[in-house]
Amino acid sequence: MMLKELPYFLLGNFLPLWLLFWVYQLIAIEFCFIHELSALGNKITMFILVVFIVSAFLMPKQRALASQAVSGFSVLSVIIICFVRKNWFGFTAGINYVLAGLVFGEEGHLLWIPNVDSLHYLLAVANLLFSSALK
Questions:
Q1: SS3 labels along the chain
Q2: What is the chain's mean pLDDT, rounded?
Q3: Inter-residue contact 98 to 129 (CB < 8 Å)
Q4: Does Transmembrane helix appear among the keywords (predicted)?
Q5: Which of 25, 43, 63, 103 has its CA 20 to 30 A from that of 52?
Q6: How far apart are CA 83 and CA 35, in angstroms?
Q7: CB 41 within 8 A of CB 33
Q8: Which position has the higher pLDDT, 107 or 78?
Q9: What does the alpha-carbon distance between residue 29 and residue 35 come to, in Å, rounded to a whole number?
């Protein structure tokens, strides 16, 4: 690899990883601080940073598994926080995230609609619910 190709290599390999690690986690951290659970928010942040640093040295399949584990932990944290604090928009959004991954996945069709499209429609609804929950 030539030196002038290094920035593209780094962007291509680490920017998607960075985005995968921080999308759901920032939502979980925001819920922790809104509901005055800063200790839990700090622990989630430290856990995410450790996994992010360690995953830079993992193989691609292990890196994807680490990302899924961190995202699952974050969504589970949001569901529990919202249930305990009776934030039903956030609770429903978290359940929608889980159902989108379990029911639709990325392969196959439901009627004439590809599952990946149905997954993204349900995730869009969940994001709208998250925005209502964070207000």
A1: CCHHHHHHHHHHHHHHHHHHHHHHHHHHHHHHHHCCCHHHHHHHHHHHHHHHHHHCCCCHHHHHHHHHHHHHHHHHHHHHHHHHCCCHHHHHHHHHHHHHHHHHCCCCEECCEEHHHHHHHHHHHHHHHHHHHCC
A2: 78
A3: no
A4: yes
A5: 103
A6: 12
A7: yes
A8: 78
A9: 10
Helices 60-84 & 6-34, crossing angle to 10 degrees?
20
Q: Pull the structure tokens for residue 31.
A: 């819920």
Q: What pLDDT, on the 0 to 100 scale, is given for residue 101?
A: 79
Cα–Cα distances (Å) from 46 to 25, 52, 62, 65, 123, in that order, read 11, 10, 20, 18, 26
Instruction: Provide the residue count of the chain.
Output: 135
Q: Is residue 91 within 8 Å of residue 82, measured between CB atoms?
A: yes
- The tokens for 13 are 């390999």
> What is the pTM (predicted TM-score) of this model?
0.73
Q: How far apart are CA 102 and CA 97, in angstroms?
A: 9
- pLDDT, tens digit (0-9, with 9 covering 90-100), for 17-69: 556 556 677 778 778 888 888 888 888 888 888 887 887 788 878 877 887 78
